[in-house]
Specification:
Layout lengths: L4 H22 L4 H24 L7 H12 L3 H28 L16 E5 L7 E12 L1 H4 L5 E3 L4 E2 L4 E13 L5 H10 L7 H28 L2 H10 L4 H19 L2 E3 L1 H10 L2 E5 L8 E9 L5 H12 L5 H14 L7 E5 L3 E6 L2 E6 L1 H6 L6 H4 L10 E8 L2 E11 L3 H11 L4 E5 L4 H11 L3 E3 L4 H12 L4 E5 L5 H6 L2 E5 L11 E3 L6 H35 L5 H17 L7 E2 L5 E2 L5
Parallel strand pairs: 7-14, 7-16, 14-15, 16-17, 17-18
Antiparallel strand pairs: 1-5, 2-3, 2-4, 2-5, 6-18, 8-13, 9-10, 10-11, 11-12, 12-13, 19-20
Helix pairs in contact: 1-2, 1-4, 2-3, 2-4, 3-4, 3-8, 4-20, 6-9, 7-8, 7-9, 7-19, 8-19, 8-20, 9-19, 10-19, 11-12, 15-19, 19-20
Length: 603
């Protein structure tokens, strides 16, 4: 790729003093060229200082500018040029390291442009890129979701499953109903979270910011003390050059952005370092059955319906009602309906009742799909035969759903549910990482809750939980440790704010307000990886802070006693900054031999 013109200019300004140093070494009489080249290279620093003064703030570039002009007053042209050369190279090196760091995860920042409109049906073939977030309404395809979830292998997506902008079809053909475009897509929301990571700083980031701000005054005070006692311009210039007050704050901000991007590669949206910091310290895991422990393999068994109504119309009513459902049972019903009819009309109105069902209208008819409780709430009359032998979610395995038209029950469906297979493995990894306790919150009875907890490997459970009881129990558990609540972010939205940190599992990418961590990849195995990422993030920031403080103090001591020249002080600052930036690469995920990504576990 050919560099842009402004990039060439930037390189030329940085290298100009170097050329001047070479020329003046051969022809000493060319010192005016050396001075001119140094002044030209110092122009960006001078302009930054001037902008700071106009904005009534102290720019960090003011310190090297003072040192540079001090050396010019001493007529030490070579030192002045060498300093501005080193500082320019430092600025370029920092920019390139930042670009390289973000480029390593740059797919998380991909900008997706789309001409699709909400509710539009788009047809996609193998090799096509999905232009917007949506739901498959027809067909099956293998989709590469690496940009969203970090999955290295294509995953099968069928009717009723969500697809996301930025992913691409490896095989198959599908029709997608567009749900979100532009800034509302999951990719763009991830991008915004990564770019705005600094808005939610962790405690370590806030401390680093305060330390950086305080260092401005320390450096200025020390410079005045050195000048007062020694009246030595070279020593003063060295003091001003050996420490960059903004270096720590800048590198910590970059680390936070990289951590948010790394979380994006794990299929999660993390609101800044504060969320990762909280996740890293969690030691009590609470699973809310309303979301992540909803049984993921759902099969639609026997269908019974009124003989006066055709199979096709029953499935069409179900598809209309469940077309926008986020509940796993609703998605399974929609997928099964589309297998029978292949198309669906638009509902005239739609009302979701989480955990109970949906009420919709089509062609002037009221459609109710859901539990018997929801039907009774809407005044649906049941013929006794429909309730004979009906089941409720006993042991979390089998239940019945009903379909009513205009206040009369006309169909019953057998819904078979099977527990997730990834909860147990995720629990084992969480326990290995120091999570000392795990609890299931469920609205079911004691007997059902006990069997559900045993099925997925949870050691404790709380049955018959209402929202108010969740709030109280989370308060009690918070006295025992830092609570990580895993739910869907909707039915447990209030409880999310009560926990130390909440993780919402949103496999369809629907925005959830107020949630600090949203897991778009429907894999709880990513949760331990996120916890490891949070710990690496904490470790890297602490290490960067220690390195900056220790090297800064050591450099100030060396320059105060005159043991470093201005040029060597600038080189010292260059080396310190490069080391600080090098540690940001510890945030980047490493490749495992089998192709999956894993977070570096060392800090």
């Amino acid at each position: 790729m050919i560099p842009r013109r402004d990039t060439w200019i930037e390189y030329a300004l940085v290298l100009l003093p170097g050329l001047g140093l070479i020329v003046v070494r051969v022809w000493p009489w060319t010192w005016p060229f050396l001075v001119g080249s140094a002044l030209a290279a110092a122009l960006p620093f001078f302009l930054a200082t001037l902008r700071g003064l106009l904005d009534r703030r102290f720019a960090t570039e003011a310190f090297p500018v003072v040192a540079f002009f001090s050396l010019l007053l001493l007529r030490d042209w070579n030192a002045a040029a060498a300093i501005v050369l080193i500082l320019g190279m430092l600025r370029l090196a920092e920019q390139r390291m930042e670009d390289r760091s973000l480029a390593a995860l740059g797919e998380s920042l991909t900008d997706i442009r789309s001409v699709a409109r909400p509710d539009e049906i788009v047809t996609l073939e193998a090799g096509d890129r999905v232009p917007a977030d949506g739901t498959i309404v027809h067909g099956t395809a293998f989709v590469d979701q690496a940009l969203i979830t970090g999955e290295q292998e294509s995953v099968e997506r069928r009717t009723g499953d969500p697809v996301f902008a930025g992913t691409s079809l490896r095989a198959g053909s599908i029709k997608v109903r567009v749900r979100a475009v532009g800034g509302d897509t999951l990719m763009e929301r991830m991008r915004a979270v990564i770019l705005d990571a600094h808005r939610w700083p962790s405690a370590a980031e806030r401390v680093a910011g305060h330390v950086s701000a305080f260092s401005y005054w320390v450096l200025a005070l020390l410079a005045m003390i050195v000048w007062f006692f020694f009246k030595d311009i070279e020593r003063l210039a060295a003091v001003l050059l050996v420490l960059r007050p903004d270096a720590l704050e800048a590198v910590v901000s970059l680390t936070a952005s990289l951590a948010a991007a790394a979380a994006g590669r794990l299929g999660a949206m993390v609101r800044g370092g504060d969320a990762l910091d909280r996740l890293a310290t969690a030691n009590v895991a609470v699973f809310d059955k309303s979301g992540p422990l909803t049984f993921d393999e759902i099969r639609i068994g026997r269908l019974e319906h009124d003989r006066e109504i055709s199979d096709a119309y029953v499935w069409e009513c179900i598809a209309v009602a469940e077309s926008s459902s986020r509940h796993p049972v609703g998605r399974a019903l929609y997928r099964e309906a589309m297998r029978h009819i292949g198309r669906v009309s638009e509902a005239e109105s739609l009302q979701n009742y989480p955990g109970r069902g949906v009420v919709a209208s089509l062609g002037g008819h009221e459609i109710v799909v859901g539990t018997a409780e929801l039907h009774r709430a809407y005044g649906v009359t049941f013929d006794g035969a429909w309730l004979v032998g009906s089941t409720t979610p006993i042991e979390g395995r089998v239940s019945d759903g009903f379909l009513a038209l205009d206040g009369r029950c006309v169909a019953r469906l057998r819904i078979e549910e099977h527990p997730r297979t990834d909860v147990r493995s995720a629990l084992e990894r969480l326990r290995a990482l120091g999570v000392t306790r795990d609890v299931l919150f469920t609205p079911d009875t004691v007997r059902i809750a006990a069997k559900q907890a045993a099925t997925v490997g949870l050691s404790d459970y709380r049955p018959s939980m209402t929202p108010a009881e969740k709030w109280k129990e989370l308060g009690r558990l918070s006295q025992e440790g830092r609570v990580l609540l895993i739910g869907d972010g909707i039915q447990d939205a209030v409880a999310m704010n009560r926990a130390h940190i909440g993780v919402a599992v949103v496999p369809d990418g629907t925005p959830v307000e107020g949630v600090r961590i949203a897991l778009a990849a429907d894999e709880l195995s990513r949760l331990p990886d996120l916890l490891v990422l949070g710990r690496v993030f904490r470790g890297v920031i602490r290490l960067q802070s220690v390195i900056w403080i220790v090297t800064g103090l050591f450099g100030l001591i060396l320059t105060s006693f005159g043991w470093l020249t201005p040029v060597s002080a600038a080189g010292y600052a260059f080396t310190t900054s490069v080391v600080l930036h090098a540690f940001t690469f510890r945030i980047l995920p490493k490749k495992k031999p089998h192709g999956q990504t894993a977070q570096n576990k060392g800090t």
